[in-house]
């Protein structure tokens, strides 16, 4: 049994090897086409977005404090509920303040009576002086008493106003509209007017709401410069717009506006503080929440972007493979008239020199390795590249960057060698070049190039 098993295993391996060899030959004679893709690059106006970490803060947060002391009688709201500006939130025992008002009114009445009498005495003294039956000295004393009584009356009225205000302050009203916090003191407690005992509650206004963030060093100047350039092009832009992304990656539906930027750079962080105001009708944004803000509305003219798949990085730097049409073969002046120029044949291993037709090594396409400088990744994944740099001696020769209309390889770089696009022997290379520019095709549609590389 052992010998039979060994023979069977040997036969199986032999058949399998034969099949693999046959398959290999079949693959050699029927190779699948190699695929590559390219894209036409155009200059265009592209939006630039700036994303920052941010923190939500209340639009307003006001402490409600007692302005007079006494026993806290009533709390007229539910903790955590929304209140309107002017709503009576707390009531303090008013008894002593009502008594103070009554006393102040009596003082005003007394002062008024004294003043009225002083006015009559002064008028009488003036008449007696005119009749020359009283000295001017007595008249002057009557005038002085009248003026003093008038001042006393004014003081009594001011004290009455103070007493009335203190009585009004026993009803503590909401200074702003918003949501209340928990009460700081309970009903029946004795409260004062000093900072340690006057706090009653806090009101927070959440709609609209603020989002605080900081511009990176130098970026704000860049943004202002781009805004100035946009205005020169006739594009009106008053304030920077922002969008908010919540912690779970969900975009907040409302758009905000930058309403404040700090006049100075933070010495510790080297950043410029900024603030955006945004509507918060559903109160999804809560003070203290960390979010991401994206400053939008900035556009860069004559910009050039390339797909991320086209950008290659190696030890020399960043570059792309630029597709270029091959130059036509030069005519041989010694060739017989009417003869067609023949492309140089590639050698094929052991078949060389045996008089047999040589197989082409593969389709060739001129490719240039063009250095580029990627400066910013866009939201769609493309890379914004720096403007082209030209040769100092030849102003038409680009040494870094691209021209409008250049074609770059986006897929199939594995087949590319320096200077040539070479495909393994017997295979063909199809390069599908797409052009996203809205060019007018003969049939009225958008032009799109697709076909074999030439």
UniProtKB/TrEMBL annotation:
Domain Multidrug resistance protein MdtA-like alpha-helical hairpin span(s) in chain numbering: 101-170
Annotated stretches, region: Disordered: 324-360, 435-454
Keyword Cell inner membrane: no
InterPro entries for this protein: MdtA-like_b-barrel, MdtA-like_BSH, MdtA-like_HH, RND_pump_MFP
Entry superkingdom: Bacteria
Domain (Multidrug resistance protein MdtA-like beta-barrel): residue spans on this chain: 208-295
Keywords: Coiled coil
GO terms for biological process, alphabetical: response to antibiotic
Record domain Multidrug resistance protein MdtA-like barrel-sandwich hybrid: where: 61-202
Coiled-coil residue windows: 101-166
GO molecular function, one term: transmembrane transporter activity
GO terms for cellular component: cell envelope; plasma membrane
Keyword RNA-binding among record annotations: no
Amino acid composition bias (Low complexity), ranges on this chain: 335-346
Record-stated family: Belongs to the membrane fusion protein (MFP) (TC 8.A.1) family.
Protein name per its UniProtKB record: Membrane fusion protein, multidrug efflux system
Organism: Bartonella apihabitans
């Amino acid at each position: 049994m052992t010998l039979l098993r060994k023979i069977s295993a040997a036969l199986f391996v032999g058949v399998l090897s034969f099949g693999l060899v046959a398959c290999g030959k079949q693959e050699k004679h029927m190779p699948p086409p190699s695929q590559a893709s390219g894209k036409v690059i155009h200059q265009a106006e592209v939006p630039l977005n700036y994303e920052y970490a941010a923190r939500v803060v209340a639009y307003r947060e006001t402490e409600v404090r007692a302005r007079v002391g006494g026993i806290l009688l009533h709390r007229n709201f539910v903790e955590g509920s929304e209140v309107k500006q002017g709503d009576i939130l707390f009531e303090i025992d008013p008894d002593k303040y009502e008594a103070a008002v009554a006393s102040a009114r009596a003082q005003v009445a007394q002062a008024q009576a004294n003043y009225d009498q002083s006015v009559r005495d002064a008028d009488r003294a003036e008449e007696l002086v005119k009749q020359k039956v009283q000295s001017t000295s007595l008249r002057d004393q009557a005038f002085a008493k009248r003026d003093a009584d008038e001042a006393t009356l004014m003081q009594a009225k001011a004290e009455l106003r103070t007493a009335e205000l203190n009585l009004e302050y026993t009803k503590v009203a909401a200074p702003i509209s918003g949501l209340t916090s928990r009460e700081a003191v309970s009903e029946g407690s004795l409260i004062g007017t000093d900072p340690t005992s006057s706090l009653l509650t806090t009101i927070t206004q959440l709609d609209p709401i603020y989002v605080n963030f900081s511009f990176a060093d130098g970026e704000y100047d860049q943004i202002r410069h781009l805004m100035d350039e946009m205005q020169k092009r006739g594009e009106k832009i008053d304030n920077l717009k922002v969008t908010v992304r919540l912690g779970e990656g969900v975009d907040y539906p409302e758009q905000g506006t930058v309403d404040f930027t700090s006049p100075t750079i933070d010495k510790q962080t080297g950043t410029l503080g900024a603030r955006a105001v945004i509507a918060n009708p559903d109160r999804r944004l809560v003070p203290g929440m960390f979010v991401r803000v994206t400053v939008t509305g900035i556009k860069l003219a004559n910009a050039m972007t390339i797909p991320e798949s086209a950008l290659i990085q190696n030890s020399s730097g960043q570059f792309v493979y630029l597709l270029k049409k091959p130059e036509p073969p030069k005519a041989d002046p010694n060739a017989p008239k009417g003869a067609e120029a023949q492309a140089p044949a590639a050698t094929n291993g052991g078949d060389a020199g045996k008089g047999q037709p040589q197989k082409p090594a593969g389709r060739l396409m001129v490719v240039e390795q063009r250095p580029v400088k990627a400066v910013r990744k866009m939201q769609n994944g493309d890379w914004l590249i720096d403007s082209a740099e030209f040769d100092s001696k030849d102003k038409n020769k680009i040494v870094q960057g691209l021209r409008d209309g250049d074609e770059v390889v986006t897929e199939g770089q594995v087949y590319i060698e320096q200077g040539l696009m070479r495909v393994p022997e017997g295979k063909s290379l199809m390069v599908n070049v797409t052009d996203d520019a809205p060019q007018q095709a003969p049939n009225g549609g958008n032009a799109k190039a697709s076909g074999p590389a030439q």
